[in-house]
Amino acid sequence: MQTFHPRHFAIVPAAGSGSRMAAETPKQYLPLLGRPLIHHALAVLCAAPEIDKVFVVLSVGDAEWARHDWQDLGPKLVPLFCGGATRADSVLGGLRAISGEVAQSDWVLVHDAARPCLAPWHVDRLIRELAHDEVGGLLAVPVADTLKHADGHRRVHRTVPRDSLWQAQTPQMFRYVMLRRALESAHGVTDEASAIEAAGLHPRLIEGDATNLKVTYPLDLHLAEWILKNRNQ
Ligand SMILES: Nc1ccn([C@@H]2O[C@H](COP(=O)(O)OP(=O)(O)OP(=O)(O)O)[C@@H](O)[C@H]2O)c(=O)n1
Ligand SMILES: C[C@](O)(CO)[C@H](O)COP(=O)(O)O
Predict the structure, then answer these.
(1) Which reactions does this protein catalyse (predicted)?
(2) Which of 11, 12, 17, 117 to mutate to test the pocket of ligand 1 (most atoms within 8 A of CB)?
(3) Is 138 in the pocket of ligand 2 (CB under 6 A)?
(4) Which of 3, 4, 14, 194 could disulfide-pair with 189, CB 3.0 to 4.6 Å?
(5) Structure confidence at residue 4 as a pLDDT band (50, 70, 90)
(6) How far is the CA of 196 from the centre of ligand 1 (A)?
(7) pTM, rounded to two decimals
(8) Is 127 within a domain?
């Protein structure tokens, strides 16, 4: 009997404006250790032996991509100029654009361009632990701080029990057809897992670590630089 092995593809949404970063350039292109920020995660995804291709979703009018040299990342890297108004729109645009290249049951790993400290072991672990999962899942870390729910006057309304609470990271890995259908039906979701949840399914949480941070505010850029510098020593 012939066995069928699903392939793995990465989609990297990179069509955001980085409004909270308040820089002149969208944060995915800000310099980080001599490279555009997005280059770091793309390098890890392109080097992952399990991943066949890495699709970067850019905004339709992106003029910055062409100003940089991506050749060192090799032939797996494919830019798609089909970003949308929200992160979910950008991911869905990417999924639609690659429909001719992927099988319905292939895995898609969606990773934020804004998470430059992705490490090879994050990708390995996610792919290995989800290989036989029926739904798929995401990297995440258990919440470490005590959580407060605020009232309208920024006073503590109550303390939220943190047991069972996790912070979602990326990559988030689901089968192509399941993810596309879920995103086509979901509204207002901020990650892929939420779309899958809205479809009544339960993504698996794969424990990552805090180094895989999302660069959102200016301080995060310094933290990312520190992490990458110290990791490579
Ligand atoms: N319309 C959008 C919005 C966001 N993203 C991408 O989604 C990832 C996570 O989003 P976030 O950190 O919120 O990025 P921005 O939307 O750029 O930032 P901000 O919310 O501060 O404007 C980023 O890689 C961003 O480029 C996208 O592809 N398309
Ligand atoms: C997908 C995500 O990285 C999970 O933490 C995050 O939600 C994306 O950032 P956004 O600010 O919600 O767009």
Answers:
(1) 2-C-methyl-D-erythritol 4-phosphate + CTP + H(+) = 4-CDP-2-C-methyl-D-erythritol + diphosphate
(2) 17
(3) no
(4) 194
(5) confident
(6) 20
(7) 0.97
(8) yes
Count of CB atoms situated within 10 Å of the CB of 148: 12
Q: Which of 12, 28, 179, 190 to mutate to test the pocket of ligand 2 (most atoms within 8 A of CB)?
A: 190
* 134: containing domain: 8-230
Query: Which string of DSSP letters, residue by residue, matches 88-157?
Result: HHHHHHHHHHTTTTS-TT-EEEE--TT-TT--HHHHHHHHHHHTT-SSEEEEEEE--S-EEEE-TTSSEE
- Lowest model confidence (mean pLDDT) among 87-101, 128-142, 219-233: 219-233
Structure tokens at 229: 């510098």
Find the largest Cα–Cα distance for the chain.
65
Is residue 204 a contact partner of residue 173, using CB atoms and an 8 Å limit? no
> Does 3 fall in a domain?
no
CATH number (domain holding residue 179): 3.90.550.10
Q: Is 87 in the pocket of ligand 2 (CB under 6 A)?
A: yes
DSSP structural state of residue 207: E
Within a domain: 2? no
pLDDT over threshold 70, residue 1:
no
